[in-house]
Amino acid sequence: MRFDRNLVFIKSDLRSRDEIVEFLGRQLVAAGAVQPDYITAMHKREQDTGTYITEGVAIPHGTEESRSLVNKTAIAIVKIPGGIEWIDGKKVYLAFGIAGNNDEHVALLGGLAGLLMDAGQKEQLMAAGSEEELFTYLEENIT
């Protein structure tokens, strides 16, 4: 998995889960990775099942039906330094907006899960102080 430096962000002005999902979706659209309707599917996924996966992390993505709206595999990442409440008192500091077709989608989730299950690697991601540092860490530690 190759990350795109232009899809790695640190943002303090996003105030809600919906704003973060919208932001990540728009970045994926701007990168040509998905069609605009994919953003609607990302919001639907949040409403139906949610994408909070572990302490401090969410992986927003579209529904299974929306995979036809994916043009190419991509991940948009945003770090929210102060965190935002994602669900019932649980904050998110890192959100990974993913777009992938069938096998690629599963591979993306698996790669991210592997990284995030490692407490040391997760701590390094959470500690990244700049977009460049976050990007470099991801590039060097997720294959």
UniProtKB/TrEMBL annotation:
InterPro entries: PTrfase/Anion_transptr, PTS_EIIA_type-2_dom, Sugar_PTS. The keyword Protein biosynthesis does not apply. It holds the Pfam family PTS_EIIA_2. Residues 1-141 form the PTS EIIA type-2 domain. GO terms for molecular function: kinase activity; protein-phosphocysteine-sugar phosphotransferase activity. Keywords: Kinase, Phosphoprotein, Phosphotransferase system, Sugar transport, Transferase, Transport. GO terms for cellular component: plasma membrane. One of its GO terms (biological process) is phosphoenolpyruvate-dependent sugar phosphotransferase system. The phosphoenolpyruvate-dependent sugar phosphotransferase system (sugar PTS), a major carbohydrate active transport system, catalyzes the phosphorylation of incoming sugar substrates concomitantly with their translocation across the cell membrane. The enzyme II CmtAB PTS system is involved in D-mannitol transport. This is Mannitol-specific phosphotransferase enzyme IIA component. It comes from Sporomusa termitida. The lineage of its organism: Bacteria, Bacillati, Bacillota, Negativicutes, Selenomonadales.
